[in-house]
Specification:
Layout: H1 3-9, H2 12-41, H3 45-67, E1 69-74, E2 85-88, H4 94-103, E3 106-111, H5 120-126, E4 130-132, H6 138-153, E5 157-160, H7 178-186, E6 190-195, E7 211-217, H8 228-246
Parallel strand pairs: 1-7, 2-5, 2-6, 3-4, 3-5
Antiparallel strand pairs: 6-7
Amino acid sequence: MSNTKQRKDYNIALLVLRSTLFWVWSIANTIVFTLPVLISSAISFKTASCFAAMWQHANLLGLRYICGVSWKADGIENIPDHPCVVLSKHQSTWETYYLPTMVGHSVYVAKRSLIWIPLFGWCIAALKFILIDRSSGRTAMAQMTEQTQQRLTDGISVIIFPEGTRTALGATPNYRIGGAYVAEHTGADVLPVALNSGEFWPRMGYIKWPGEITVSFGPVIKTANKSANDILAETQDWIENRMTEISVVDRFPYRGTQPQTERS
């Protein structure tokens, strides 16, 4: 089916309704799971993580059955059975739900300002996310490295988006050194991840377009005797090469945006 034919077939009003129902579902899930996460975090990180995983699975199920967004994964055999640093493409909110369900007990590196978001922010603080002030420069890098080492020692993987924010479809890659620096200084294995979630749940977009997201887990990158620049180059090369194979930038009719160039 051509892209032109696809665009004639979509009932935009219905898609808006389904997307609205999903947001109601997601908000309800957040309200339901906040208290269990906060209470259990005072007792056991693993228990709190299990409640968080239930919240993530509930959102993914809502996305599948309300909005018709499914997914397939390849390279699952590459996911290590020990804590690692996950460096992933970031196009959508979808992967923030999905990745922890695949790599086990894990936390994100995120901006500190998120803790001020009611309910959600309280939970990410309780779940030991690595929260940094991006304006702190070297201090932030040192804190991120130290806290990553602590999480790895505790058996927790760390998920980092090396481009720092959700990227628009077709935007020029803008990988930053932070995640690779952390991997170099902790000696952790790196798991690269490519995905095309932004085609179905675009950043700055309300509609969730029905279809099948592809997510690919690449071969583990060993970091011993490699510089941060080498690790970053190897990671970016694998992710971006895989992106060219799974991406269809104009898959759906984006309205009011220019996804080829837009960035936050």
